């Protein structure tokens, strides 16, 4: 019954000083300094948990602004540090707070709560406890996604959350199919709009359709092969229509989904044949070489880059392998399924993705990285580099970057001085 406590929000500084002081070094050898003070990790952890308890209490505050700030602070903490034991002890309290904020909050608060639900499941990983969380939150998320009166931003955030949480926790095939059907109903509306108008135009619903499509595609990657075949037959001839959308992100989402569907189709049937292949490759080639002047240069560059890869996937069954570095480890992304999964979790975790790849058992299991690599003091010492070496490296990188940029600049844009 006392006055509400004024707890400072969990900021980027907290993440860098408190939560990352003893973990970010694993992702960058240069972050080890030669003469830094030792950190009392136990005291730091206690201080962090004290702050987080305060934020959890504030998710029940009467002020919507306070509740939203508390949710955002918890999101920052969960994305930048592994807090499994802390979360396990308070999972029901956190679930109740998230459920209340999604049900009763306004758009921004609902988005923050849905984002926190994703990170809660990432922290917990797959297991009975996570299934209990999803059983509570799943129906609430589905209701918001299908509610035409809810804000588009809230529906978009809940669609992403629904897909990600289902991907993490669901062993029940019935629940997986039910969630996919919910998302499919949203994606189908994008197809219907295409039939009603000649070409898909951008509307305020497009962001919702993109999130639903990406979440649905993520869940498709864990479906049994017989279900994958059904979905491919149902959607492969409809998806190309979305390539005509005015929205760049929708075109890219549709293109990457097409590449993934072709990859899965060829895995299930080596002799897979697509009837309208010539028309599809023509569309993809046009997007890969698009030079329309009414499009922004940055958008054209991004679109051409993506659709060159999509075209190669559809025509030549090829994928441009990417390498992700985190600490002493390397992970190769060598297929569209892996790329889709990596991009989804990178969007959720942001700058904490590298740390979670090193330390989060669930993510390491998803990407088949094995148990976390434990570095002893001797190994850490060999990873250290001096400040002078670091300075030389940064200086060389800066010069190389400047040269590369100067070559790309358009010399014709030079203008003389006017007096």
TrEMBL record:
GO cellular component: nucleus
Region listing for Disordered, in residue ranges: 1-37
Start and end residues of each Interferon-related developmental regulator N-terminal domain: 19-315
Quaternary structure and interacting proteins, as annotated: Interacts with PSIP1/LEDGF.
Sequence similarity: Belongs to the IFRD family.
Lineage: Eukaryota, Metazoa, Chordata, Craniata, Vertebrata
Alphabetized Gene3D superfamilies for the sequence: Leucine-rich Repeat Variant
Alphabetized UniProt keyword annotations: Developmental protein, Differentiation
Record protein name field: Interferon-related developmental regulator 1
């Amino acid at each position: 019954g006392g006055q509400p406590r004024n707890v400072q929000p969990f900021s980027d500084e907290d993440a860098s000083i408190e939560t990352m002081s003893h973990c970010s070094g694993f992702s960058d050898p240069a972050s080890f300094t030669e003469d830094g003070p030792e950190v009392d990790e136990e005291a730091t952890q206690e201080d962090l948990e004290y702050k987080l308890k305060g934020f959890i209490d504030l998710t029940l505050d009467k002020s919507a602004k306070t509740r939203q700030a508390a949710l955002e602070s918890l999101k920052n903490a969960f994305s930048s540090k592994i807090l499994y034991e802390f979360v396990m002890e308070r999972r029901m309290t956190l679930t109740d707070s998230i459920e209340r904020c999604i049900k009763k909050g306004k758009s921004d608060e609902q988005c923050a709560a849905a984002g926190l639900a994703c990170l809660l499941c990432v922290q917990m990983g797959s297991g009975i406890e996570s299934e209990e969380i999803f059983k509570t939150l799943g129906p609430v998320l589905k209701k918001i996604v299908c509610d035409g009166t809810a804000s588009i931003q809230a529906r978009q955030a809940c669609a992403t959350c629904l897909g990600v949480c289902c991907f993490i926790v669901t062993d029940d095939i019935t629940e997986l199919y039910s969630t996919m059907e919910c998302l499919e109903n949203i994606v189908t509306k994008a197809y219907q709009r295409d039939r009603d108008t000649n070409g898909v135009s951008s509307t305020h619903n497009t962001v919702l359709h993109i999130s639903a499509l990406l979440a649905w595609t993520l869940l498709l990657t864990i479906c049994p092969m017989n279900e994958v075949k059904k979905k491919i037959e149902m959607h492969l001839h409809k998806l190309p229509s979305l390539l005509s959308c005015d929205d760049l992100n929708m075109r890219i989402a549709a293109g990457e989904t097409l590449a993934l569907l072709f990859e899965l189709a060829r895995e299930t049937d080596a002799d897979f044949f697509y009837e309208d292949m010539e028309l599809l490759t023509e569309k993809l080639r046009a997007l890969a070489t698009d030079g329309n002047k009414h499009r922004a240069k940055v958008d054209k560059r991004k679109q051409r880059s993506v659709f060159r890869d999509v075209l190669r996937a559809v025509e030549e069954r090829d994928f441009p392998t990417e390498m992700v570095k985190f600490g002493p480890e390397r992970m190769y992304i060598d297929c569209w399924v892996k790329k889709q999964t990596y991009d989804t979790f990178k969007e959720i975790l942001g700058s904490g993705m590298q740390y979670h790849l090193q330390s989060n058992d669930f993510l390491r299991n998803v990407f088949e990285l094995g148990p976390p690599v434990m570095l002893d003091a001797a190994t850490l010492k060999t990873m250290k580099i001096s400040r002078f070496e670091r300075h030389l490296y940064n200086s060389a990188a800066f010069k190389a970057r400047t040269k590369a940029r100067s070559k790309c600049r358009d010399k014709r844009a030079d203008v003389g001085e006017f007096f």
